[in-house]
Every structure is written in C-alpha cells, then in structure tokens.
Design a protein that fits this description.
With 637 residues, this protein is an alpha+beta fold. The chain is built from 18 helices and 24 strands. The protein has three domains: 172 residues, Histidine kinase-like ATPase, C-terminal domain (Heat Shock Protein 90), CATH 3.30.565; 106 residues, Ribosomal Protein S5, domain 2, CATH 3.30.230; 187 residues, no CATH class. It has a seven-stranded mixed sheet with strand order 5-4-3-6-2-1-7, with helices on one face. Strands 8-9-12-10-11 form a five-stranded mixed sheet, sandwiched between helices. Strands 16-15-17 form a three-stranded parallel sheet. A hairpin with a 2-residue loop joins strand 10 and strand 11.
Length: 637
C-alpha cells in the first residue's frame, strides 16, 4: 500500500515538472492591483522607480485631449537595456540592486489599478541603445509591441499613459497626484516636478513644490532632533519634533503609513503613553520593516514594541532636555505658536511621572493670576509649607488675590495643566470658580483667634492615652453588688472592643477652629458648621452654633468639646467625616468620648511644645458640670 502511494506521488511530481504551474494571469493582475490602498499611488511607484534608476529629476506632466487624459512621466535615470526591459515586462521579476527602494519589481504595474487606463507607451535609453514598447490596457491580455529605435536618445525613461477622462479635470487630477507625492516622497532625494500642459485659455497652474531629501526637516516642525540606534541587527533612524502630532513609519525615506491605529505605539506598547504627548512628532525609518506588496502597512508590528521601549528609556528625555533648553533661553517668545506647543508638550510629559521629572519640575510654565509663572516644584513647596493652591475665577471682579496664602493660578494653563495639578495635589487645590466653595480665611483676611476661641480649640482633640488608660482601668464598686460590677465590666469590654478600630481613625483627625469664607476669600460663610478636608476638621466660627459652643466652653469646656465632636460625627452628606464608619461605630465613639471627659482630667495642646499638659481641675466638679450642663434646654443641639 505504501509503495502505491509513493508511486502515485512520484508520478504527480513528474507531471508537474513537465507541464509547470498554470495560473489565471488576469485574476493575478487584479489581485496585484488590490494591494494598493489608493489607486493613485501609482505615481509613488513610478517616482521610486526613477530614483532606483539613478535619476536626479522626475517630471510629471498632465495633458487633456478630448475624452482622455495623458500623463507623461520623464526621468533622467540610467534607462533600461534589452535584458532589463524584458525583466520590466515580466512582473515579479526585478533586476534592481539591494539598495533600491522598490522590492517587488511590480511598481510599474500599479498604474493598471487606475480606472479607465487604456494605453501604455514607454521609451527608454541607456545612452547607448534605445527601446520602445507599447500596449493597451495593462489589465487585459493585449499584445505588447517592442522595438529598438535606430536613433539613440539621451539617457532616461519616458512613460506615456492614457486614461479615460473623468469628472475631474486634468489639473485637478495632477494636484491630487502632486499631494500624494508630497506626502509619501517628501524626504526622497529626487527632484519632482508636476505640471499641466498649457492651453490658451488655461490659468497658470499652481502645483505643489518642495525641496526634497532633508530627513531632519519638514514644514511646520520645530526643534527636530535625530537619533540613530540599533536593536539586535536592525538599525533605526528616528526623528522627534514638535508640530502637528503624528507617528509616521518610513523605509528608505518613503512613507509607509502615518497615524494608523494598528501602528500606534501607545496601542502596541502598554508603556507607550509617551507617544501620545501633545504635539509630538515621531518619524521612524528602517530597512528592517517588512511590508505586503502594496507597501501601505507593516506585515509585523512586533518591531514597533522594541522601538517604543528604546525611545522611552533612552531617547525621549534627551529630546525633552532640548525643548527645555530652548524654552528657557527665551528664543521662543518670537513664536507664540511654538511657545504654546512647548508648554503643552512639557506639561504632558510631566503628567506621565510628576515625581520623576526633575528637570521639567523646574520649568516655570504655570501662569498665576497676575501673569507671573511658577514651576511644579514651586507648587510642591507651597503645599509642603501648608498652603493651598487656588484656581482663579475669571468671572468675578474685584477679588483681592493678595489676601490668599498660596499661589492663585490663572484658568489659562498648558493643556490639561489644571487637571494635572488637581489630580496630584488633591484637597490642597481650591477652585474659586465653584459657586459653593467654602475655604478657611486665607492670609491677610484671617482673623486672629481670641483667648476663648483658642481654649475651645485645645479641648477638641481626642487623646489616645486617655483611651488606653480607660481600657486598663479596673471597674470599682461594692463587692456585695457583684452582679452589677460584672455587668458594668461586660459593657465596658464590649464598648472597648467595638470602638478600638474606630478610635484609631478618629485619632488621625486634626481639629481646629477658624473663620470660613466664600470663594472671594473675604465674605463670611454662615451656613457651614465645619469644613472637612485632607483629614482635618475646621469648625467655622462664623456659624452661630459654633459660637455658642465657644461661649459654653468658658464654663463647661468638656461638654462643649463633646458637643462639637458629636455635631461633626452625626452629620451626613458629601462632607461627612469618616464616611466608612457605621452609625453604631459613631455612637460608640460618642459614648466613649463622654465617659472619658467625665472621668479624666481635661487635656489641652501646648502650642509651643506640642505636648499634652494637664489642667488642675477637680474631677468631681467636672463630672458635675458635664452632667448639669448636658441638661440645659437653651442649647441649639
């Protein structure tokens, strides 16, 4: 059985060897044409062919003749001899050297994709021999006539291609072709000239013009910097610049694709967020890129992941330093557009790693209300000094921002600058545009606290040592009443167990009193009892209930401070203190606070030494005061 299979296979291979492989050439031609995403890209292929032929100049001229358009492509390259001409006429066969841009030898066939292509003439000369061939539609199986001309013409090749006319004029078509060449071949070092044959009534055509071949420079790009590096055996030529944000891939200075989602480094590389920085231009050229026949994308984007990591780790910071140096020397003041681009780019870079961008931290790019500039490091220093950061309200007039104790920033900042500052500094940022903004009276507008107000503030702190003492204190009482003593002990044990976790959260709070004001920094706020921000509770002395507590503290300091804590812990809503605590936890804390204030000496904070000191008061009198005053009917709680 195995011998029969072996014999059948050998017979089939022998027949295939004798007859060869037959293909549907017409279908194959259509398949080749479909490889080009835009049928007009034939102009790119023809100019690239001219460059590969050593041409310095390529002229493309459009002619309108009745119902057809004729486009003539002329170059001054080395032309084709008989052998090269035969290779040109046999698709998929190329006689180009290894340095040529074209790889597949089918670039000339791309013109067959143009709808209505109906005639194709070529004259080529090496300077020693001249050949001419002609055919009709390249998609059809029309004969190709080849002949050698006796007259030897100057070196070069001329293509004469005829298309059926469309709704567009030949001038419109030529402008489209010129724009495509400008886009894809801007950096190719060959002079390209587009023109339209003049008619008596035709206005002077305005065609795209540029100086080719400068890889480092493009129009409307700034601060371009070139970097060359290798990854393994592959080499890459990268240009970073500022301008219209784009990512572009090239091979031998021919554009492959730009701003493609499938080739975006931020999509390919999880760490590639750097490539989306504002106004950043990234151009990458490499011979190692593999492409399909249409040369409009990469066959494998794996190389881009390595390129992205290389740029991020070793190159980007060098470009950032270039931008900072230019920004810092004041030259950019001559270009407001560049000034904005640099600030937005640097702010975006800073947002990637605020704590690790030391050089960018020092750049004074954030604008204050009076036009002066501060750096991110300046803002960090202000917050470390206990100050807030304010965003000005442009709609309010007459606000004296000199009253504020921290930097007041303009609403006009680099792109997402306000968002960066808000997310990084959190509760230390106050937005003065908020209608319901409440803040502690800043700077010069803050009133000095009275002796009574300072005394009231000192009694607010919940002291951890008092709680620890309470936990270890034995339960007293007559031994004859053992059942009651055991019950009290059980209640205490249960209370301590439930409150132990919540009390740690309460101990972290900082308590104080101050005068709260509105967004202008001056108008008294009388509707808010307290402000809870950044783990700090500030009781509002402008509020009537808080003022009553201050008055009560003169005769019953323990009771007034207990009521103040109860007032804050029992509040609900978006400004609720310690929102994660349950209502039962809060109740336990208040019960424990009352017990401690009845049974212990009151404690205050020594403002100079920051230590806890005891006041010499009689414990029995204080318990009496607490119990007596807690029944007062004229208190508003």
């Amino acid at each position: 059985m195995e011998n029969i299979k072996q014999q059948s296979l050998e017979k089939a291979l022998a027949e295939l060897s004798n007859k060869g492989v037959s293909v549907d050439s017409k279908q194959l031609k259509h398949d080749i044409c479909r490889q080009f995403p835009d049928y007009r890209l034939w102009v790119r292929e023809f100019i690239v062919n001219a460059f590969d032929a050593g041409a310095k100049n390529c002229r493309i001229t459009g002619i309108e003749e009745g119902e057809v358009h004729i486009i003539i492509i002329e170059d001054d390259g080395h032309g084709m001899n008989k052998e090269q001409l035969e290779g040109f006429l046999m698709k998929f066969r190329s006689t180009k050297n290894s340095d040529a841009v074209g790889r597949f030898g089918i670039g000339s066939f791309s013109v067959a994709a143009v709808p209505g292509q109906c005639a194709f003439f070529v004259v080529t000369s090496t300077g020693e021999e001249t050949w001419r061939f002609s055919t009709g539609s390249l998609l059809e199986s029309t004969p190709i006539v080849v002949e050698r001309l006796e007259e030897v013409r100057p070196r070069g090749t001329t293509f004469d291609i005829t298309f059926k006319a469309t709704e567009r004029t030949v001038l419109e078509e030529m402008n489209i072709l010129a724009n495509l060449a400008y886009k894809y071949l801007y950096h190719l070092p060959i002079n390209q000239f587009f023109n339209v044959q003049q008619k008596p009534d035709m206005p002077e055509p305005k065609m795209q013009q540029w100086i080719p071949g400068n890889w480092l420079l493009e129009p409307n790009e700034y601060l371009a910097k070139r970097f060359c590096f290798s990854i393994g055996e592959d080499t890459y030529d990268v240009v970073l610049a500022l301008g219209r944000k784009r990512q572009a891939l090239y091979q031998k200075r021919i554009l492959i694709t730009e701003n493609s989602i499938d080739h975006n480094m931020a999509e390919i590389d999880p760490q590639g967020a750097w490539s989306n920085l504002p106004y950043l231009i990234v151009r990458v050229d490499s011979d190692s890129f593999e492409m399909p026949l249409g040369r409009h994308c990469l066959s494998d984007t794996g190389d881009l992941l390595l390129v992205s990591r290389k740029i991020q780790s070793e190159i980007l910071y060098q470009f950032v330093d270039t931008v900072i140096a230019y920004y810092g020397n004041g030259e950019c003041e001559t270009s407001a557009e560049l000034f904005v681009k640099m600030e937005d780019f640097l702010c975006g870079y800073l947002a990637l790693a605020p704590n690790n961008s030391r050089s960018v931290n020092q750049v004074r790019m954030f604008i204050t209300y009076d036009g002066t500039r501060v750096s991110f490091a300046d803002l960090q220093e202000a917050v470390q000094d206990g100050k807030n950061i304010y965003f000005e309200d442009k709609s309010s007039s007459g606000v004296d921002y000199d009253l504020f104790d921290g930097p007041v920033l303009s609403s006009k900042q680099p792109a997402d600058g306000l968002g960066l500052i808000s997310s990084f500094f959190g509760d230390k940022v106050l937005n003065l545009t908020m209608e319901d903004l409440v803040q502690e009276a800043p700077g010069k507008s803050c009133k000095e606290l009275s002796k009574e107000e300072r005394g009231f503030s000192d009694t607010l702190t919940f002291h951890p040592d008092a709680f620890e003492e309470f936990k270890s204190r034995p339960v007293g009482g007559d031994e004859s009443r053992r059942s009651k003593k055991q019950m009290i002990k059980a209640v205490k044990s249960q209370l301590v167990s439930r409150a132990d976790r919540a009390i740690r959260d309460l101990q972290r709070l900082k308590w104080k009193v101050s005068y709260l004001v509105g967004r202008d920094g001056e108008t008294p706020c009388t509707s808010i009892r307290y402000l809870y921000r950044d783990n700090s509770v500030t009781l509002n002395l402008h509020h009537e209930e808080i003022r009553n507590l201050v008055k009560l503290s003169e005769t019953a300091p323990l009771l007034s401070s207990h009521f103040a804590i109860a007032l804050c812990l029992s509040s609900t809503g978006k400004n609720c203190i310690l929102q994660h605590l349950s209502s039962k936890d809060r109740e336990d804390l208040l019960n424990l606070d009352a017990i401690l204030r009845c049974g212990d000496v009151p404690r205050s904070r020594d403002e100079e030494r920051g230590k806890l000191v005891e006041k010499k008061e009689d414990s029995a009198n204080r318990r009496a005061d607490f119990n007596r005053n807690s029944t007062m009917n004229d208190l508003p709680f």
